Amino acid sequence: MLLSACISDSHGEIMLYLKLLGRTLLYLLVTCAVVVIALVIKFISILLGDALVYQIPLIGDALLSLEIMELLNIIVFGILGMGFGVATILLPRYFASRVSGLTLAVLVPLIFSTGTIFRYYNWVQLFSAEENISYNQAELITNSFLRQSTPQQEGFIGYYIYTAKSPSLPVREKEMIELEELERTSKARFARITRLSPELVGYLYAGRGWVIRFFYFIISVFSTVVNFKIGKLQVKRS
How far apart are the first and last CA of the chain? Predict the structure, then answer.
């Protein structure tokens, strides 16, 4: 009887571990699907913004400077938070929320940054097409432009810093020269009107972009947290 009881206990433990493994794999499957859906919506919003919204006459440039399509992060991160909140039911209660919370803490800034990464490579590709040169050549030229326009940064980092102060991007070599001159003229005019020093005007131009990005990031975090809690409540009620 003792041997039979031991075998029965071992069988019960194995079934418990298999059940836990199955639920964990299902959790990973569900959360991965949620991340993919969130990324797809984010990329669609970027493409719609560049192709339609930011091309609207008169107000397109203003909407671009405000990065208005980033407001759709409410939907993107709402889906992310809701999905992870609902998925917590698949994990043991004593650590489900902690695992999902830590995962979201990593995913939110990564997904938030994917838009900039996607737009950077899209910009280099567009520059390559407009100049009718290879992607590698376009990358060399755009990197040179970014190094001159930022504190010696290139690639995605240089792009991220540059677009914080100036959302308009040149897609031809000629535009790079014109854009630099236009930016200098704009800053000089603003300095004359406000009677501020050119250095302070430069900081204000750069600061505007960072403030906007910080605002959208806070919105993304807030949307994730709120919907994560809603998702968990919906699961408990059901």
Answer: 42
